Each structure stands twice: as structure tokens, then as C-alpha cells.
Amino acid sequence: MTHEQWGRLQQNLLKTLGKNNFANWIEPLEFSDISEGVATFEVPTTFLGNYVSQNFGDLILHQLSEVGEDVRRVNFRLAANIGNRPSLLDAQPKSAAPAAAPSAPATATREEIVPGAPLDARFTFDSFVVGKPNELAHAAARRVGEGGPVTFNPLFLYGGVGLGKTHLMHAIAHELQMHRPDLNVVYLSAEQFMYRFVQALRDRKMMDFKQLFRSVDVLMVDDVQFIAGKDSTQEEFFHTFNALVDQNKQIIISADRAPGEIKDLEDRIKSRLQCGLVVDLHPTDYELRLGILQSKVEQYRLQYPGLELATGVLEFLAHRISTNVRVLEGALTRLFAFASLVGRPITMELTQDCLADVLRASERKVSVEEIQRKVSEHYNIRLSDMIGPKRVRNYARPRQVAMYLCKQLTSRSLPEIGRRFGGRDHTTVMHGVRRIEELRTQDGQIAEDLEMLRRALEA
Ligand SMILES: Nc1ncnc2c1ncn2[C@@H]1O[C@H](COP(=O)(O)OP(=O)(O)OP(=O)(O)O)[C@@H](O)[C@H]1O
């Protein structure tokens, strides 16, 4: 590999892993050579080699192929002149695995996943947030990840875009590689399956293809709806599937909908797919979205130490972005990157500026009028009293609650909200919103009211 290629590869890894991970784990690697499909890197400590191998090995393999290197395996060798290298022990996370014996050089091998695709090191069970909408899928995936006797075959996971199907499949593969390194685990998308099938046909290597796929212990095929309508690929998939099930080998399939609902998929395949356990990932709810954001923020805090995050921002995003987790994650990434670039804390204002397009796209159709109506019903007061000038507490508090919800659930500006509340000034609205923000954390009743109202408005 040339210096230029190594430089490009490092740039790609920096982009994928972020500054901190990159500085801790990748920068200390010294590229040595590539020989007979094995790329060797020198590492200052065995611990570092093991950690990188376990967590980033597949990613490095993938990136090597991206820069045009044909590598099957990555090898980490303890550098001879360790004394000259900076020690990285201080930079190592406390939770990382203990150092292995120096006599056992670490290796990340892709042999076990050929003909599969590389796994994303970030998609583990640890990083998967569990909530009501995905708890069954998660439990089933966990069970399969244990690598015990095959109880349901296939495991069929389905759900809308960006709800965590791929994440769960990779997590199963990581888990199996750890607990059952003896198993030949293959993960690939249905598209890659088709691509390899067509390639084998073209190169007259069908026997190799069949043998390869029939020798796996666990086969995972992502986005199986892709092969609908592609007759010969379906045929081959069907045979592979049957051969593995007959040998009692575990199969895990994902799709964007239930087997019976995939159009142009042969009936015999549909019924095969329904034989095992079919579980769906439901659309996320508010709690799950908030949980995911909180767990991502923990990672970002390491990457951007010292960056301040105002209270209420995560709740706001969890309310407002309900499309899918990918969009939610993207929004948070952008927010942190933006705030760190401009060197400002992440406030509600900054969030609204930075994510204006995302927020507009996922805007809910809740109107100010609807909020006012629901809030007045909830507190049993007349709408005219809530909007009117009276300042007694019985009206003022519901009014502030309604203003707060308008700010949270609509894209109306403070002056616009003020106008809709009997022509009040925007500072009055701001005061009301802040007051409710404070009370939310101190007063259980207010928090409960807000939650009930939000649910009612979202329904
Ligand atoms: N419960 C969760 N906890 C943490 N991260 C999640 C969760 N669900 C989804 N994600 C994240 O959301 C992103 C999209 O998830 P993933 O790629 O697994 O979706 P998918 O269901 O396979 O979507 P597609 O239908 O587009 O293939 C990933 O970065 C994933 O880590």
C-alpha cells in the first residue's frame, strides 16, 4: 500500500470513527506491509492490537478494499521498539477488555465471513437501545446470538426503514463471533447474494457458489424483499435456504415487511420464511427515541468534551423527529458537529437554526388551535379564557402549558405564538415556555399533564 493510500484510508477511518476514537486507536498503528492477502500493522501494545482487532478489524478490512487492496486478513504485530512509541494506556477506555498475553498477536479475519459482507463494529447489542417497540425483536436476536441449539428457524425480522434491523443482525454476528468462534457466520444483503450468484454464473463457478453457501453455520440475509421478482436468484436462494434448514443451520432474514406481504416473492419461499419466528420492529415511540438520543449523547460527550447541551433539547428532538432512527442520529451528529465548529453551546435556538430543514420535513400536523383546544379541555376552562387577558393562575398556567406545547410541537415562532394567544408579546411567550420547562422537572403533576397532552395531540 502506498503512502497516499494509507493516508486516504486514515482519512476514511477518521470520518467514520470520529476524532477521539481515531486518535486513541488508529493513529498509533504503523502500517508494515501487505503480503499474500494479509495486511500487517505494528502496534505499541498487545492490548491495543486486540482492541482494534475486535472493534475495528472488519472496518479496516472494508476500508482496505475501498482503497483497492485485496486483503483477507488484518494482523497486528507488537512493534520491536516499543520504548520509542508513546504509551496509550492513558487513552484506553476503562471498560475495554483486559490485555491478552503478549505472545498471542491479534488478528481480525474475514475468512469466516467470506462470502459475507463486513460488519459494522458499532452495531452491537451494547449500543442497541431497547424499548417497547423493539423488545421482542431484541430478545429473539439475543437468543440467536447465544449460539445455542436452533429453536426457531428462520428468525425473520421486519420493520420500516431505519428501525434497527441491520443493527440487530450485525449484533448477532458480533456476539456469535465472540461466543462461538467455531461457527462460520455469514452476513450479507440480498442484493449482495444476487450479485455473487450472477458473478458465479458468469464465471461458471456455480459449484463453488453452492458449496460456499451450503457450508455456513449461520446465514443472515438482509433486505430480502430485494430478490422479489428476480426469478433465478429466488430459485437459488430457495435451494440454499432449504439445504441449510435441512442441516439445522440457523438462518436470519430481514425485510421491510412481513413475508406474506412481499409482492412477487414465490409462495413457497413466503411459506418457508413464515415457518420460524416472525417478529416486527414497530415504529419508535417517544421514550425509545429519547433513549437512543441519550445513549448517542454519551458517545458524543467523549468526542466533543466540554460541549454544553441545554436541557430540553433531546426531548424536543425526540418529539419532533419521529420518522426513523437514522434521521434522528443524523440530526444529532449534525448538531454536535455544528456546535463544536462554531464553538457555541447546544441551545434550543441553535438546534432550531441548525436543523431547520430536518424539523420542517418531519413537522407534525399539529396546529396551534388544536393545542389550545386540547389544553383547555384538559384543564376544564373555556378556550376564550385561556386566550383572553385574565391573569389569574387558573387560566395563566394552562395558557403557559399551551404556549410551551406550541413551541415544542409546531414550528411557529414566539411572536406568531404570541399573536395567537390574544396578541401577547413574544417575551411573554418566552417567559411562559421557560416557566413550564422549569416546572416540568420540579412538579410531577405538570410533567404528567404535559405527557398526557402530548400523547393526545400525537394520536
Ligand atoms: N434501538 C436502537 N438503538 C440504537 N441505535 C439504533 C436503534 N435502532 C436503530 N438504530 C440506529 O439507526 C440506524 C439505522 O438502523 P439500521 O440500519 O439497522 O436500520 P434498518 O432497519 O436496517 O433500515 P433499512 O430498512 O434502511 O435497511 C443505525 O445507525 C442504527 O444503529
UniProtKB/TrEMBL annotation:
Query: Which source organism?
Result: Thalassovita taeanensis
| Family stated for the protein in its record | Belongs to the DnaA family.
Protein name, UniProt field? Chromosomal replication initiator protein DnaA
The residue ranges flagged as biased composition, category Low complexity, are 95-108
According to the record, the residues making up region (Disordered) are 89-109
Cellular component, GO annotation: cytoplasm; plasma membrane
> Locate the Chromosomal replication initiator DnaA C-terminal domain: which residues?
367-436
Q: PANTHER family this protein is in? A: CHROMOSOMAL REPLICATION INITIATOR PROTEIN DNAA
